[in-house]
Specification:
Blueprint lengths: L3 H15 L5 H9 L25 H7 L15 H14 L9 H10 L6 E7 L8 E7 L3 E6 L4 E5 L3 E7 L2 E6 L7 H4 L13
Antiparallel strand pairs: 1-2, 1-5, 2-3, 3-4, 5-6
Protein name: Ribonuclease P protein subunit p29
Subcellular location: Nucleus, Nucleolus
Function: Component of ribonuclease P, a ribonucleoprotein complex that generates mature tRNA molecules by cleaving their 5'-ends.
Length: about 200
């Protein structure tokens, strides 16, 4: 075809410019095999490190009072709907608390369940002033429960050296606080072992 010589000349000139390190013989060898690989040296881009978004520190949370309940909100009646939601949550979790339900199955579920909204009573304690405190759990931390009583008083009860009881649909469960020193999020993933004797 017309212009084929011009095309060859253009390709030769283009390859010489594109591959300056190759000799003429090597370029001709590439052309005879009809496979042209252009050498392209690209600069490696430095990978940008993604900055992790940092949350608030414990000190900042305290300063911002994120976990504090305002005095006007410290009323037992406000949290009764939360307790009703909790009871429904436990019934769904245990597939309905029927009379023939195995107690150890319910106990195992309660160990990992979220206790916010549960009504608990301190039944035993090494500190007698804690015994008899009854109320709805508003907040659970690693070492303490924050409980609102019927008298609209917010009590901070340590888990250590205390035994708590909670009742739902006639089923009573006991929580040994000394074995319960975990955050709610950590407790849901923990494997609890059966122990023969438990004491304060």
């Amino acid at each position: 075809p017309q212009g084929s010589e011009k095309a060859k000349a253009f390709v030769n000139a283009f390859l010489k410019r594109s591959m300056p390190r190759k000799k003429d013989e090597a370029i001709q060898d590439i052309l005879t095999r009809k496979a042209v690989i252009l050498e392209h040296y690209c600069k490696k881009k430095a990978k940008q490190k993604k900055k992790k978004t940092k949350g608030f520190t414990a000190k900042q949370r305290r300063e911002m009072r994120l976990f504090e309940i305002e005095p006007e909100q410290q009323r037992y009646t406000i949290f009764l709907p939360l307790h009703e939601l909790w009871k429904q949550y436990i019934r769904d979790l245990c597939h309905g608390l029927k009379p023939d339900t195995q107690p150890h199955m319910v106990q195992g579920k309660l160990l990992k369940a979220d206790l916010h909204g549960a009504i608990v009573t301190v039944t035993k304690s090494k500190c007698p002033s804690y015994v008899g405190i009854t109320g709805i759990i508003l907040q659970e931390f690693k070492h303490v429960f924050k409980i609102i009583t019927k008298e609209d008083k917010l009590k901070v009860v340590p888990k250590l050296n205390n035994v708590f009881s909670l009742e739902i649909d006639g089923f009573i469960s006991y929580i040994y606080g000394s074995k319960f020193l975990l955050r709610a999020s950590e407790r849901s993933a923990k494997k609890f072992k059966l122990k023969g004797t438990i004491d304060l």
